Amino acid sequence: MSERTPTSTRLRWGWVLTCTLLGFALLAAASYGEDAEWSGVVTGTLVNLGSALVFSFVLFFFENRFTRRVATTVRRVTEDAEERIAAQAAEFTSKLDDLEDRIAADAGARHEAATSAVDAVQDNLSAQSVLEALGRAGEEGVIGEAGVTVPGYEGAGDLTASFRENSKLYDGVQRPVRAHQGLNVRLGVDQKPGEIGTPVIEVEWNASKDGAQLAETLTAELRRRDRHDEARKIDWTYIFRELTRALQLAHTLTGKDATLGGQVLELVSDDWVITTAGIEQISTGRRISFTDAIPVDPSRRPRPFENVEPQAPADIDNGTWALLRKRARLHTLPSH
């Protein structure tokens, strides 16, 4: 059984033949009555009616055929357009998939290069290897602009070591220059009574110094500044090991579908790290925002009887909480 098109019309052929014959009959009557007494207006009326009946069906057949041809043409054009749109959409989807694959491959290559740079620090400790590892981590966006800070010895709360790239101004834009200026290494120590601000010792570390010479220079500077306890406690093997671990954690635990919520700023201990998102616990993924740990402006003195110090959470001992808040406070100060 054939399907009817939307424009097809079922004809009643009996009506068609009847009306057509009636039209011819009226025309014949008009022709016969030209010489009759009732000719004139009646004859003209018969001619008009007869012609209308005959030609209405003729015109109907022409119009129906024309409508079918138009509908067929429109359908064909629509199908061609849909095919072209589908082909273009498929081509666009294919190009988009290729672009996503290239982006993923490029990101994978950068990540592999960054992790390889961290491994190189373990294999060959030098200013260049550390500089390369920090630069790669910065390009990946897994560490902060101020570099990475680690404890000065195991369990340290009073001594830290920070590593970051030196930079130079180009056309008003700050960009790292690894090949020329090397690294900035900074030791941070606790205040002594009467001191203002956080005492720091900074040196430039470039290719002319190896790791041992850097350690010797900074340790001697600690002694020169009457920081003999810190000079005795500082453990450079531990510092470089923790620097490597901090960079590894940054690459592993930050980014998409990762544990840490921000860029790594400081490795405080085995299980705690400070990121741009706050204080974070590595083992559990717990995050404490800076506003929860430091709810007031550090420069504002509390009013009498005002308790502005947040209490330590039940599962964090007071010593760890005090250390975490002290280190987090330094990262929220504008000068840090």
Largest sheet: 4 strands, antiparallel
* Alpha-carbon Rg, integer: 44 Å
From the N-terminal CA to the C-terminal CA, the straight-line distance is 85 Å
Q: What ranges have pLDDT less than 50 throughout 5 or more consecutive residues?
A: 1-7, 168-172, 176-180
Assess the beta-strand content as a share of residues. Answer: 5-15%
Key structural traits:
four-stranded antiparallel beta sheet; 2 domains; alpha+beta; 336 residues; 53% helix
Summarize the model shown.
The protein is an alpha+beta fold. The chain is 53% helix and 14% strand.
Describe what this molecule looks like in 3D.
With 336 residues, the protein is an alpha+beta fold. The chain folds into two domains: 72 residues; 206 residues, no CATH class. 53% of the residues lie in helices and 14% in strands. It has nine helices and ten strands. A four-stranded antiparallel beta sheet has the order 1-2-5-6, covered by helices on one side. A hairpin with a 5-residue loop joins strand 9 and strand 10. Helix 2 packs antiparallel against helix 7. The protein is rod-shaped. 21% of the residues are buried. The N terminus is likely disordered.
Q: How do the helices and strands line up, and which of them pair or pack?
A:
Elements: H1 13-32, H2 41-123, H3 127-140, E1 148-151, E2 159-165, E3 167-170, E4 173-176, H4 178-181, E5 183-189, E6 200-205, H5 211-224, H6 228-233, H7 236-253, E7 264-267, E8 272-275, E9 278-281, E10 287-288, H8 290-293, H9 318-332
Antiparallel strand pairs: 1-2, 2-5, 3-4, 5-6, 7-8, 8-9, 9-10
Helix pairs in contact: 1-2, 2-3, 2-7
